[in-house]
Amino acid sequence: MHEVIDCDECDGLGFRVRRCFCVQGGDQLVVDGGRYADQVYVGCRVCGGDGSVAEPCARCGRAGRRRAQLVVTVVNLDTGAAASRRLLPGRLDPPAEPDTITRARDIVTGLAGAVGVRGLSPHWGQRALGDEVYWLPRRWRAHLPAQERLALEAEALAQQEYDPWRVYVGRGTEAPPSPEPGRELARLCEQADLLYLDLVVEARRRYGEVVWTIRYEVPGGRVPLDPHARAQDLPSAIAATTFREAMRGLDDRGRDAPAYTVRPVRTAAAIPSSMDLGRLDRAVLADLADDAPGAQAVWRDGRWWHTPLRSAGSVEELHERETGQIVRYVRQMVRRAAEPPDPAWWGEPVEHRPCPDCRPGTRLRRCHCRVGAPGPDPQCSRCSGAGFAPSGLACFTCRDGGRIPAALTVTVTDGRRVSHETWRPVPGEPAPVVGYQPNGTPVHQLRPHWRLARHAAVFGVRPTDLTHLDEDQPVDQDLLDATVTVHDPAVEPARQHVERIGAGLPGARLFVLAAAPDAPPLTDLLRLAYALDLAVVVTYRDHRLDAGDPTKVQGERWDIRLTARDARIGAEFPFCASVELAVARCVEYLDMHLLAAVPREPDRPVPAPQAAPSPPVAEPTGLLRRVGRHYAGQPVVASFDRAGCRLWLAERGEVQPLARAATLDDAVSALRLSGS
Ligand SMILES: [Zn+2]
Ligand SMILES: [Zn+2]
Ligand SMILES: [Zn+2]
Ligand SMILES: [Zn+2]
User: Fold this and answer.
1) CA 58 to ligand 2 center in whole angstroms
2) 482 has a pLDDT exceeding 60
């Protein structure tokens, strides 16, 4: 029996005794991050100065045993067919030579042929054909004694048990070819011109290698300390960088960038349809000569500007360790040797005031005792009435930017069209009270030109399709409807609105994407679940009873997850404002849903579903909305699997069964809702 083996980390005990982390820094309070002292810290909060700690084994999750079993599954979304291969000791393909990695491609190809998959669907989970499946050690030989060979194979499989079920989702048609990198880069430049941002192509030296990154920046910000670069060359950096990827973290990078309004300008020349990568690559690498720590090409105002990076001294970073010690790291900073000329689109500087809720250069932040109170609590144990207390978190008001801008630029785009607006409060603007928070604080609504929701119609989408471009989060209701909870009656609502939104934005700029989520139909997800013999659990809540109340959720909310068929159904709070968004999230996190569907006990098998083609399934959202409308205000839960459909109603955190039938149609009929 080699399918489950004892955990080597804890010798099957489920817990282990290890050296405490405090020994790294040695017996002192402030320690150097790069040092290994091998000496116990006498005041250690974790081991009490003993030097060793007993803890549950993380490798086997306390089970003491590990599963030596993997399953690879391929599903054809067009037909609903699935094929799986269970990888067990003694049932592995002999590798071309020991020490070679078996990759997903080696196994997926055969399974894909069996179910008629000709191309994998991108974005269903994070899997790629190049992923490692297992790796037999050099000692492995086909002619070894069976016991020894099986033990090596079991160990190789157990190494991968953190990811025991690899599901690849595809279709009967070929996947579109990956785009040409020169063209992709030209597209990223085009977007930079559209949004009035810099596109930065950066090469940095790291451990004797050169690594590349591509990202958007608000002009004038600092060069990031750690750009998370991994790509070994320019083409692979482009391949690894989608538009969303290049936007991610823009607010962090632009924290110190100067704030200017946007003045629409035309860029001088048209962007070529494909960038000359060889030329760009040579120019950046030329700047890396003379041992520069890095070099950048910055796309601004329709052309590339080149500069080497120079060392700009070091910063000290202090982190508290759970042992009670303070760890000190010294990080090398870099700056651009030459700044490109100011962007042509810079209008006038945006005025700002310092953030009232933090002290620059310190860890002092507004104390909790001041939240929702007119002043600090003199008895407060954290601040003793000072109103400020040390905190490890970023300032809640300014996100550590330290500035509160007096105006902001709102940029809305669908990727092809764009709108730039300056939002600046005018004293004395009318803002009637439209509701009250539960504690009696009034909620005002600003005039229609402040309501972001109006952009939805211009771009042909729903207000719920407006999302923050740099963090992939939907825009909140206050921003959509320009509703403002006025905590301080001395500050006008419009100013409060601008300051709340603008604080912490990079260069006082808000970027909004107006596009429906890039999601397959819900029926594709149902088909996947039937093929894998799992359940799709959909939670729906109709908020129409709260319509018009600015303090309550408006519209509808959805939650969709994939679970094991026998998983317990709970009362989830649905957060997605559209069914498309809920499907997109479920598909994006598919690998995590699948992992949760694998039994935890190592001796229970990993699912290995096989499925013949099945007929298409009916689209359930219309019927679900009907049930939700009947039970407005309460989440309605529906589960779909091969056996049929079940309905529940969530009440006070529990789910109550409503109906069970072969189809949703039958289940809804059984409810005999009024009007049916
Ligand atoms: Zn310790
Ligand atoms: Zn263990
Ligand atoms: Zn306090
Ligand atoms: Zn602050």
Assistant:
1) 6
2) yes
d(CA 16, ligand 2 centre) in Å:
8
pLDDT tens profile 247-281: 999 988 898 899 999 998 876 667 888 999 999 99
Cβ atoms 392, 318 nearer than 8 A: no
- CA–CA separation, 428 and 418 (whole Å): 30
Ramachandran assignment for 524, one of left (phi > 0), alpha (psi -120 to 50 degrees), beta (any other) = alpha
Report phi then psi at 61, rounded to 5. 60, 40
Q: Please tell me the distance between residue 325's alpha carbon and the centre of ligand 1 in angstroms.
A: 10
Q: Which two tokens stand for residue 295?
A: 């070099």
Structure tokens at 604: 């229970």
What is the model's pLDDT at position 676? Answer: 47
Q: State how far the Cα of 206 lies from the Cα of 106, in Å rounded to an integer.
A: 33
Query: How far is the C-alpha of 367 from the C-alpha of 384, rounded, in Å?
Result: 10
> Whose structure tokens read 């020991």?
98
Kind of pairing between the strands at 433-436 and 165-171: unpaired
Q: Relative to the alpha carbon of 6, which ligand is closest?
A: 2
pLDDT digits (tens, 9 = 90+) for 346-391: 999 999 999 988 987 788 888 888 877 778 888 988 888 888 888 8
- Sequence letter at residue 357: D
Residue 350 has a CB neighbour count (10 Å cut-off) of 21
CA nearest to 247, candidates 200, 301, 179: 200
Tokens of 545: 């009873």
Query: Per-residue confidence at 95, pLDDT binned at 50, 70, 90?
Result: confident
Q: What is the average pLDDT across 611-616?
A: 93
Tokens 């991994």 belong to 230
Interatomic CA distance for residues 334 and 327, integer angstroms: 22
404 CA to middle of ligand 3, Å? 23
pLDDT at 74 over 80: yes
Q: Residue 401: CA atoms inside 13 Å, Cβ hemisphere, count?
A: 30
pLDDT on residue 667: 94
Distance CA 627, CA 668 (A): 7
Could you tell me whether strands 65-67 and 4-6 are parallel, antiparallel, or unpaired per DSSP bridges?
antiparallel
Is the distance from CB of 242 to CB of 267 less than 8 angstroms? Answer: no
**How high does pLDDT run on average in the chain?**
91
Written as one letter, the residue type at 383 is C
What distance in Å separates the CA atoms of residue 590 and residue 583, rounded to the nearest whole number?
10
d(CA 282, CA 390): 48
Q: How far does residue 406's CA lie from ligand 4's centre (Å)?
A: 15
Question: CA torsion sign, 380 to 383 to 386 to 388?
Answer: negative
CA of 358 to the centre of ligand 4 (A): 4
Ligand number nearest to the C-alpha of 365: 4
Of 69, 84, 85, nearest to 153 (Cα)? 69
Q: Residue type at 2?
A: H
